Batch of 3 targets.
Target 1
Amino acid sequence: MNTAAGKDTMHPNTPHTTTTTVTVAYAGGEERRGPVTMGQANMIRCILRDDPTHINIHDVWPVPEGTAQQAVTDALRALTVRHEGLRTTFPHRPGCAPVDQVVATEGTFTVTVLDHAELPGDPAGYAESVARAARAGRFDLEREFPLRITLLTVAGAPAHVALAFSHAVADGSAMAVLREEFAELLAGKELPELTSLPPVDLAAVEASPAGLRKSEASLRYWERILRTGPQEMFAEQRGRRPGTDEEARQLTLRSRRGGRALAGAARRTGHPEATVLMAAWCALVAHRAGQDSCVTAVPSANRFHPRVARSVTTTSQDALLHLDVRVPAFDALVARTWGAVLNAYRHSQFDSLRLWEMIGRVTAERGSHFGRDVVFNDVSALPAPLLGTDAQDRDDAEHELTWGPPQTLPTRLLAFTYRTAPQLHISLWAAPSLFAPEEAEGFLSGLVLLLEAAAAGDVPMDSLTDVTGVRPAGHGPGWLRVDGCWVSPDAVRETLGRAVGGLPVRVAKEPGPHGTTDGTAGAAAVADPHLTAYIACGATPLTPEAAHRALTALIPAAGSGVLAPHRYVLVRNPPGEPDRSDAWRRLEIIEEGTGRSRQV
């Protein structure tokens, strides 16, 4: 059924546009019902909580010249029948998250046709804007078809399909598979038999004894990192708190220099290009952040098994890479990266609800705030990789950096690697509170310089500033590395003071567990000091545990560099010289203790 809807009001720069809605019926496949997958549960949690423009995803599919509208709708219908994920809804009671998925055998979807007298000067960019606009509005998980489809035509001739997807049924890898199969259908090719599992079957595998053991092992792996690794990679005075949304412009690198350098470094080291690139990324991130290790989320990692490699569903669960960069030279880091990446991949399947419960418990016990502030998504090995508005044939840039549109993201540094040959093609979103535009450009250029140096020979890790031009971030006066994190004792004191209602507080650096109590700490204690908080509670009833709980309640909204002390010491009144730690140490102790649990 076709219905005229008048002129399109969403795109005022295209006045000669008419909108028509086409309803497409489909039938086929098997009606099925089963539990949601771990990836679906993870994304549904985000869909119900987050801004739809942040969680919904989009893509643009070019349509070959001469293709009829009927061929486009037939191809979309064929994909819907072929892939159970596109025929899936998630029934649930109001106020409850879905736990089941239902696959339909028949139904309808709509295609909005925007017909133009002519497309704007940048047709691909225009199609991208249409797809991105369709991300607005939360998908109705129980009833809505999970794709919002807009067909852009010129005088009736199809040019692009702009799509927004519910993240509950697709991720970037799934969109790449669908894009590839759409092109093959329009070319008249027959699609091969499906070899990867549909969502209902994947959920059954995850719920098997082996799948549950895998999930438990993943939770233990994550807990070790959350208890011992940096709570945030970029702990700086000028940075916002972890998890704070910032609007960052897209910076895209296209570099044949980078492609040649990566290939050369891979040949020289004898490791895959993906491993070398990951090592270079982690080395530069840790160097810029002034950290001994790099913690980075790797979202595409859980597509490495053949049973999910081409599944049209969402497998959006992070692999969490924790890479210690304390090695003499880059070759040793590449060798270490190989094992660390495999370990992260093996632990990227988990019950996301239990994961976030564990994150909440562990960060409260540690007195930290886990910040997913570095994300590296390498989709270069995927079929028909998702390249946004730029076609894959733009490979003539020797070394080019271009700025694109802004996007609001809850991360500090997000990278997508789209291609590694013949050019290195990476898009970066860097939080402007941490990276000025020239610093973001310098970071991507520095990555290429590091790869070029690694192609020529082993690179000493202490030469990264000279090799790349990227300087480590400076920390404010008095900042310390405590428990694997950069911490500001002044910020801890201010936050703890607010937490305990304005009572006098002193936060002092103390020797670590291997130091002495007289201030002559050994080398181990100097390298890893602990913090002790002295609180003059007067007549206010207070315990160390209550002080810790009050502090951890404020940490998620506190600034960067706030970590709970290892020890709380309660005294009656502040000393006469409240700015001297030794004066606090001489006071009579009412009670002392810690809110922290064991470290694993």
Target 2
Amino acid sequence: MTSQVSSPAEQADGAVVGEQRKPAADKDVRRLDRVIIRFAGDSGDGMQLTGDRFTSETASFGNDLSTLPNFPAEIRAPAGTLPGVSSFQLHFADHDILTPGDAPNVLVAMNPAALKANIADVPRGAEIIVNTDEFTKRAMSKVGYAASPLEDGSLDGFSVHPVPLTTLTVEALKSFDLSRKEAERSKNMFALGLLSWMYHRPTEGTEKFLRTKFAKKPDIAAANIAAFRAGWNFGETTEDFAVSYEIAPATQAFPTGTYRNISGNLALSYGLIAASRQADLPLYLGSYPITPASDILHELSKHKNFGVRTFQAEDEIAGIGAALGAAFGGSLAVTTTSGPGVALKSETIGLAVSLELPLLVIDIQRGGPSTGLPTKTEQADLLQAMYGRNGEAPVPIVAPRTPADCFDAAVEAARIALAYRTPVLLLSDGYLANGSEPWRIPETDELPDLRVQFAQGPNHTLADGTEVFWPYKRDPKTLARPWAIPGTPGLEHRIGGIEKQDGTGNISYDPANHDFMVRTRQAKIDGIDVPDVEVDDLTGDARTLVLGWGSTYGPITAAVRRLRASGERVAQAHLRHLNPFPRNLGAVLKRYDTVVVPEMNLGQLATLVRAKYLVDAHSYNQVNGMPFKAEQLATALKEAIDG
């Protein structure tokens, strides 16, 4: 959803986006500054769709937000089981926020499995809405409940709202020509309507979405809309919900501009398209579907009007091979994958290093090794990106820090690839890929000019005066070789994986030439112009620095804010460029007595920092497939400060 506004706050103060129904006059309305909601149910219950719709309406209302979808790897996991639980957490507020939240204030549990899988995360006093229709003896025994948690007192510390969601949905749809099973499928829309009433969310956008989604099945669209409205009306009329809540738009969180809610993979897709337009080059994606990267292939396939060509290959090796061929042919070439796919693509990445052609390799990291945890997040591919090729094959590495930042990271990766004629690895992860936040759509004149000059004619004069084309004659500043498009008269040259002679590009087995070419390729990467790392040190006298990269930005920043609020002095720096490192990084690290590196791996950045700068960096690691929680991280950082 896109909203054109002077600011999100002004949008809310003017005409309301969507239909904003008013709660009944006899109901209490309480003002909150933020709330965290988690929808949970079977993977077939539509929890991701429910969360996405609530998020879209929240974004249009002008709140700042952050989301965390969490779902099984199986296409349809066993119903009613703990491994089959799918959840969607949304944190939204009237101020700037950074994470999906540590613990939900509201849990919507569609069945016993959803309750049991999530109750440990719910703090005492929180609200729990349960679908009582699903709490049958068989369903409860399947997940280990000997007695009903709704009756045995185990939920006494919570504000529990028992709602027969299935029964109410079926009753609301009895006028439709639907079987009971078909009607039950709309219970997620009933729950969405109820939550929309509780938190004063607009409703028109969701109804429009349902009409569009089921345009070819108008009866199904009407049934879902009816269920959605029934949920809203239930909240309005039932005595069990005596209170609704208001969370005002985020008046200070955003600069003026046009905003939309965006996920990391969508932002990456748009960044790639923007880069191709700024470079005036066609965009070519050679890819093989793999979770959690497939959304990029799906999205780019929709944009042929922007000169995008997508190729779904038969395997990972074919995908990158086609992309490298497109780079040779003059396209902005991209291949997308996750960690296991990077392993398969490694030989062709090495070929791209040897050919010195621009190629974007986008790795949406997930839990490993091998197939690992396809739908869970991790940032454990850094060392693979740095060293996972045979021989000396250096590549630049770029990492976005938030879902919206994926757009800028894609543009930056394209800048480096085109300017320095090199493959570039971009490391996102499942948390960023599937999570979402508001994004200010940039103006075209804010984007960098990425246009390149292809080789047009001879670039070298031999001793006898003959003018020839040397494919490995380098730009003295960037060390990039010329980019010669096949078929250009007079620019015929040899390509392949065997070592080339400097300048001429002829095959060479000469030891001195190989030594020179290896060192030159490394010097090209080392010489890439990247910005200095910025340090957030409010007082200037902190003795502890928290250094992060990638998606740990939100939890680290939230944890640092908590520490500062309690009087601790702590500095923070976050890396976008991981190869080469920013030139001032060594000096920054030496200014602090303690350097802590939180990572969703076993200490990969810490290993690189210790090796390169001889700094005794302390690792704080988590590899459970989930992002850090801010409170957990704040506690660990406090221990490091005190230690």
Target 3
Amino acid sequence: MPKKRSGGGLSPTQQAAKFLGVSVLAGAVLAGIALPAFGALGLAAKGSVESFDELPANLKTPPLSQRTTILDADGGQIATVYSRDRTVVDLKSISPYMQKAIVAIEDSRFYEHGAVDLKGMLRALNKNVQSSGVSEGASTLTQQYVKNVFVEEAGDDPTKVAQATQQTIGRKIKELKYAIQVEEELGKKKILENYLNITFFGEQAYGVEAAAQRYFSTHAKDLTLPQAALLAGIVQSPSVYDPVKDDVTATNRRNVVLKRMAEVGDISEAEAAKAQKAPLGLKVKQPKNGCITAVKGASFFCKYVERVFLSDPVFGKTKEVRAKLWNQGGLTIRTTLEPQAQKSVQDSLKDHVYKSDKVAAAATLVEPGTGKILGMGQSKPYGYGKNETEYNYSVNSSMGGSNYGFPTGSTFKPFVAAAALEEGRPANQSYPAPYEMPYPATVQTCSSKPWTNEGNDKLENESESEKGPYQLKKAMELSVNTYFVQMLADIGMCPVVKMTDKLGVVQGNGDKVPEVPSSMTLGSTGLSPLTMATAYAAFASRGMYCTPVAIESITQTVGGAKKSLEVPKSTCSRAMSEKTADTVNTLLSGVTDSGTGKQAGLSGRANAGKTGTTDSRKNAWFVGYTPNLAGAVWVGSATQKVEMTDITIGGVYHSQVYGGDTPGPIWRDAMTGALEGKEAPSFNLVNIPNPPDKDRGDENDDGDNGDDNGDTAGDENDGFLTGLLTNGTTNGGNSTGGTDGGTFFQGQSNGNGNGGGRG
């Protein structure tokens, strides 16, 4: 049995048949509404019924786009993002005043007619002909709803929006047929509910709930009579009747609505008169859309989450599908961001680096064993003004970061040590490590063609007092450049390549680290803090590398129903043996205990890390970890044009910046706050034996004399290494910088020079 129309009388189909059956009237009425020129009526009538019959039978209603809410790990709101600021509510959650007001002013015969109001159409036709223009429309609420569906489907595409709203006979015919279908399928109450949720109320507010929030900071169910009348009046022309911009015009329009409500019997004359005297009573809530409004300094993390969503195939096979889902919204995204860790990161950055400083700082904290990003921030806020930036210095360029990342200096050396240990080199491996030496004549690569030092380039240590022989522990503590280049020459570059591949170490542009000694030992190639933090987290988790993740769960609301979406998962794999990881942890514990990272050392808990400072002091790093948290801090110039000598950072003067004295304390304070109240597990440290003879005397903590527990001039490796101290280059020239202003970032550097400095 056909569904009865809620308004009584002829069914929509019967009305349409009657309407379309009057030969010239159908085209005339449609044309009269759409076109100001009466002469077009004949053309309009021709073929109207045929076109009507050829239209598809079903209106495809897209899910209404809504706001998306991004939460931290504890459920606290970070930000809301939306293509349309809308929160869908059902009819019982909308004030009865609002329901009556919109019907009274937009379609007072809504409950009496079907999809098409013939009486209204003929009245509009008569007035339009008399005025030789379109002085009155005749679309019912149902037809307006259908038009809004077309607009919603068009999204933010201006061409499609224009097509959805153009005043043409074809569109009116299409709108009419779908209106008939909607009336038959939904009924009056559902149509009214859908209309109030889809229509635009101005000030970026779509739907009555968002409008109630925007203008009155209340909910749709709590709208009073004057408030409801104001919102109902806005719909006809949101720009003209915007109460924020023109309260007088808006008040007059509100009073027209109130008068109409009294005329149709929805309220009494006395109620209307009282409401007309009421002030507008606006309590405007400014729209907060996008990651720029994120709290807790989490704007950059918020954008990272957005980019993960738009790039990960788990959310759709193509970028178009993913973008459509993101713009549709209605998502509640719970992230991995831990409020305590995030606050600690931001507080530390704020304390140590001012946003007005010549350089910037970025810090990222990652949980070992899970890959969860717990904190991410930087000293220059997210934005487009002075001392602000939209670039996330913590991540790769594909996720909104710099073009290539930033040279890491000596923080790369632990990867070389891990590779050598995996190759079977002992933890007390010794090399001559002079103060200055040429790069090796050749170094084996992963291909059959070795790297050759064609330019006879040289490298040196940070201080002339740093001269070997050294064993691994002391060389790591003092960050001895020549030691690690000799280690690389010993094992070749391929073991290091394999190690960095397992640790997810790629350049900021996504490319692999080039097989040249300066990149493979001294960190002359740009990487991101997130890359470094997740790689070091593998040491903390005893050799298990876990890819970084930012999203815990996503719930999508569509049509009142909620469903969970699949989210990207961290993939964990073994990057090195537990023994190797434990040995690296032992080595790097010495760095924070008595080496270049002493200023970064934590009190009361096991910690390890490595400093890094690059050529000309354009970058300084500290990357470190405890068994349950890893973090990376970078300080430098995004354009790579600032040399950090004779410079004031965060109100502190530095004659020369080191990884230990600037990023080190940032890391220390960020980690201390993030770990407050958390357990303090220990590392599985290993015993690293001293060399068998001690002809060179006792080890000196400061390394001034190069003593290293007695390595002798007759070390078994010396014969091999003598042959290395000949020629050397690093292939590729010096690093190239971008321009000031933050649009372009430092270029890739595979060139000669120490790269690592001392830290």
